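Q: For a teaching handout, I want to show students what a protein-ligand complex looks like in token form. Below are the inputs, and the small molecule is calcium ion. Please produce the holo structure.
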Amino acid sequence: MNQVDATILVIEDDESIRENIAEMLTDEGFAVLVAENGISGLKIAQENHPNLILCDIMMPQLDGYGVLTALRKKPDTELIPFIFLTARADRTDQRTGMKLGADDYVTKPFSRGDLLEAISTRLAKVNSQEQYIDGKVAREREKLEQIYHYDPDSGLPNRFLLRQKFNETVATRNTSEELVGILSLQILQLRQVEMVLSPKERQELILELTRRLRSQLGEEDALFLMNHDRYLIIANIPKTRAEIQSLLELILEVMAKPIQIGTFRARLSMLMGISCFPEDDVCLEGLVEKADFAASQVSQEIAYEFYSSHHREQNLEQLVLEDDLSQALEESWFQVFYQPKIDGNTGAIVGAEALVRCQHPQKGLLPPAKFIPIAEATGLIVPIGFKVLERVCQDQKRWNNLGLPPLKIAVNLSPLQFRQANLAQTIANLLSPHGLMVLPNFLELEITKSCLIANIPRACEILTSLANLGITLAIDDFGTGYSSLEYLQALPVNVVKIDQCFVRGLDTNPKNGSIVKSVIQLCHELNLRVVAEGVETVAEARFLQNLSCDELQGYLFSRPVPEREFYQFYLDWTASEVPELSQLLPDFVV
Ligand code: C2E
Ligand code: CA
Ligand code: CA
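A: Here is the structure, written as tokens, with calcium ion included.
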């Protein structure tokens, strides 16, 4: 600061001294403020932040010590250089003043030289302190810049430089058709993996991941580390969806290779989501959010998804459905449809599968695929499942009253229900008021193998308790996923339902044909009944019949239908009044 620029406040109650000093300082080129007592001096200091204050000690109302004390308490005035002016050369006075934080002391009477020297010494000191602080701040700022803008492990720029790069990239587009792809890459197990690594190995891992990513990117593509396990790429070189897609393929290929760090070797799973400027959004925040959203929609371990508003709508729909499902339970929107099962030998209806539907007041009849996953995720499947069971009991009773022989109704049991404590007791309590406990073969429970393989001994216990109630147990969707037949022997199950993907076209697809053939043979050896589901054509039905499949279920016979329609179907079928079918299936002795 140049001395001429400095503003000096003079607080002095003696008018002649005050004016004398003011004149002297004005002559020297300072800007001068004056106050005739402590209170107004303090006020002027607080409002104007002078560069230096000259202040008398002895003043009425508020003395110099009071002014100094008040200034030192406020952050915006605490550092203003403060020089006492006093007639007293008393040492104790000086000490009191210094203790309060005065910078200097000038004893009246003083010469012009004394005063100016004190002032310029003070201002010079402040000046050098400011320079020092400026330098220090600049160095700190640089350090912070590095910390804020670059990741310490990878050295990659982080989110703060993203906007700059994005704006630059958008500005360099040659035509409005050119896309800028924003890719969000999330590494799934990074946190777990890092727990077993040393800090040095951790850095190595990040460096290796970064190196691999870089190897697939062009100079113009920018790579950012957003937070620890999320990379963001602004793709500048690819300009079309197809080009972006080939970049993604390349990235996934290098990223999917196992990584060796020290003795540790891992193959990391990663999800990539992509949004495109300007098609998906024009603002950076929106694009990043949409790329992240797309990544969250990736269902496989190592894969990518482009953002699509369709996804978003589906997701919103799901959220709404979550709310709806609780309401559905309260208001009984759930219905049970029945799909008959036909005896493979006799062609008689031996039972039916109960399949839940949700009659939504606005959306209409919802199939299970729309709401079962949500019900599973929220746990609502448990009360829904028991509602279905209850309805099946009521319907059974109705058919019984109408004179139908007991039918074995199969009800799907969700894994979550299966794991309920006291499952058998809950089901027994549900059945007994309907007087159903005495009927043999009235209920079959369809269980997917995912319920069973997690803990076979426990599953065995649960199944046994259910079997003791007289319930038939079926393994649903057999053949899909983990397909070991061994556990069949260990468990008290009675029925295996071959999944429809094996039934579809089994007469023309030799692979399906031979799978179904060997499953049926094996099950029969183990004394298990086999149900084929999803039978759609006469050829499939014949093929299954020839393999001695015990029961057939599928659209060929009937779609799942409401209770009353099922009852009517039963009557028609039993009276051989389903004309097309009796012609199509002359082999069936209906
Ligand atoms: P799932 O247990 O495999 O049920 C068979 C599915 O195949 C049913 O679909 C049925 O309508 C369909 N289907 C039957 N025959 C044919 C056919 O010939 N061709 C074709 N393409 N499909 C056929 P739905 O009713 O949509 O049920 C889907 C799934 O929802 C069921 O698969 C089951 O896993 C679940 N689900 C249904 N009701 C319940 C329930 O009350 N509780 C639980 N936990 N899950 C249920
Ligand atoms: Ca089923
Ligand atoms: Ca199935």
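A: Two things your students might notice: The pocket of calcium ion (ligand 2) is lined by residues 353, 412, 446, 476 (CB under 6 Å). The chain has 23 helices and 22 strands.
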